[in-house]
Amino acid sequence: MSWISLRITPESNREGVIAALFESGSQGVQEDGAAVVTHFPADARIHEIRNAVMAADPRADIAIADSPDTDYSEWRASVSSHQVGGLVIAPPWLARGLDPETTVIVDPVMAFGTGEHPTTRGAMRLMQGVIRPGDVVADVGAGSAVLSIAAAKLGATRVAAIEIEHDSIGNAEENVLANSVSERVEVIEGDATTLLPLLAPVRVVIANIISSVLIAMLPMMKASLASGGQAILAGILVEERDAMVSALDAGGWAIEREDTEDVWWSVQIAPR
């Protein structure tokens, strides 16, 4: 398949630009300094995607180019395994010989939710101080289901991997099967704002999404937690930390732990 590459440097609304890309069908974005890079199939309506980005940030710089077909073997060689606390995230071809009890196998179909991104690793580090045997967990915006699978490996009895993007569902389900956690992890396609209240109460909510969406979902997350429940939030830029802290304080949340890697901030919170 041929692809078109978009490299966007936002001027004033980075969150809005990323949201516009996802709403236009992007399956993942890469942060490259000030720029955001993503790819769309060659038949995508690029002018509509460009208009959506400009509506979010009229002064954003947008570079559009054909993306050459990738040599799969070369790309595959660039994907590595990652030790994250007591867990390892690995693609199938690097998982052989690793302990299946502590290995999260993710086939990086879209190179998103593979452990290559700091937000995944930040959330997973925090999870290892939160998830307890027998927990009921909701993973909001589950993507490849990497964090849902990690929750099961950490002892959760029931995990709902909620994902609104249809194109991510097949990969998530395949990853769940590959990790032999199908009895504990259910991939659910749909809008978390509708589904999470139906799954309540849960002891842990995990959400690796852009901060504007996280802030809007805070009241619903709080209402969906069981007594003594906690939430883990990721996908937040370090420069957005102060705004998120203010929103958490106003919403009656207490910060319990924080994690920072590169320009990304993750946080463990609980209702006050």
How does this structure look, described?
With 272 residues, this protein is of the alpha/beta class. It is built from nine helices and 14 strands. Helix 1 runs antiparallel to helix 2 (46-56) and helix 7 (192-199) runs parallel beside helix 8 (211-224). It starts with a strand and ends with a strand.
Q: What is the topological layout?
A:
Elements: E1 3-9, H1 14-23, E2 30-32, E3 35-41, H2 46-56, E4 61-67, H3 72-78, E5 82-84, E6 87-90, E7 103-105, H4 118-127, E8 136-140, H5 146-153, E9 158-163, H6 166-178, E10 185-189, H7 192-199, E11 202-208, H8 211-224, E12 225-237, H9 241-250, E13 253-261, E14 264-271
Parallel strand pairs: 6-7, 8-9, 8-11, 9-10, 11-12
Antiparallel strand pairs: 1-3, 1-4, 2-3, 5-6, 12-14, 13-14
CATH topology of the largest domain: Rossmann fold
CATH class of the largest domain: Alpha Beta
Number of strands: 14
Helix content: 25-40%
Radius of gyration: 18 Å
Distance between the termini: 50 Å
Characterize the main sheet.
Answer: 7 strands, mixed
Strand line-up of the largest beta sheet = 10-9-8-11-12-14-13
CATH homologous superfamily caption of the largest domain: Vaccinia Virus protein VP39
Q: How many helical elements?
A: 9
Q: From the coordinates shown, what is the CATH architecture of the largest domain?
A: 3-Layer(aba) Sandwich
Number of domains: 2
**What coarse outline follows from CA principal-axis ratios?**
globular
Tell me what portion of residues adopts beta-strand conformation.
25-35%
By helix and strand content, what is the structural category?
Answer: alpha/beta
Q: Helix-strand pattern, N to C?
A: EHEEHEHEEEHEHEHEHEHEHEE
| Uncertain runs | none
The average pLDDT is 89
